[in-house]
Amino acid sequence: MKKRKIKRTVKFRTDWIKWLCFAICCVCLLQTGVILAKADSAPYNLEEIREEFATAIQNGQMEITFTASEHYTLEQIQQQLSQAALEQKRLYTGKSRYRRQTIGEMAAYTFWITEDSLLEVEPVKDTKEAYRKALTALRDCDYTTRFYSDPSCYAIFYLMLQQHPEYNYNTVVWKNKNGTYGYRRSRELTKAEQDAKMRAADRKAEEFVKNELTKGMSTTQKLQAIHDYLIRQCSYDQRLKDGNGYEDSYTAYGALVKKKAVCQGYTGAFNLIAHKAGIASIAVCGTAGGEDHSWNFVKLGRNGTYIDCTWDDTLQTGGGICYDYFNVSKSVIARNHTWEQKKYTQKHLDYCKYLM
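^ that's the sequence the OP posted. Answer follows.
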């Protein structure tokens, strides 16, 4: 009796183990089926992966899980993350963690994105948009936005600052290794000081346009009025040759309010008044007389015209107002002025519309 009882117990235990193994196998098969079902139903082409990333970033989701073809490389996946981030005005810095598990021909990914891995940026799509955004940033004194484009449009932002010294109060164009760039205020002036100087220059320019320019005047007559006003209003600041740091004489404020300026101040003031009068004008940076110099290129007719108020200012030497460099052609100004002409063209005059 005891032997039979022992055999039955052993048989019962053996059957129980078989059933347990069978149950475990079923569970494994069910789990595999769930995984495969997820893989079959989950987005796995690159476009869908980018959409998954974009939705997660938009919703502030820090953990993102998806499946994709096992043949996609990590670089391809991260490219989708970078593009999705830019769509949401973020720059992916590559600082996220990830996990990858292979399931047959599929790969399960989990990305953990930290706050410092996504920088807030203003994407710049192309060069045309770069001109617009650079000029509006200057006009609005935007010193906080990080701009980003591939390839970098930093050179355009730098050129716009050169062409428009009326907004340059020792303003700096910065560029970071991660591809971001933008404008910032120098340490020489506080925000309150810069704002006050720009408002004062604006008031002077607006007063001149209101009181001295009439609707019946031609564009040439308006340009001559601006030219003559600056020469009578402003005297050349002889003490500045190679000045370092901030000086009012480099600004439109110096020319219009303090009535002393160097060539950059003259050209900036000319731009400021011209734009308020509805005339496109840019500063040209080059050399003249063996020294660094700037003058104006103004929209007039088909090819534009050149005006150099600084060189026409002979009042300080006992002369009158000179017109040797007023409303002259490129061939005339080029006799003793040198500049990189492709950087100062009719196209650049057209972009002045963003300042008027």
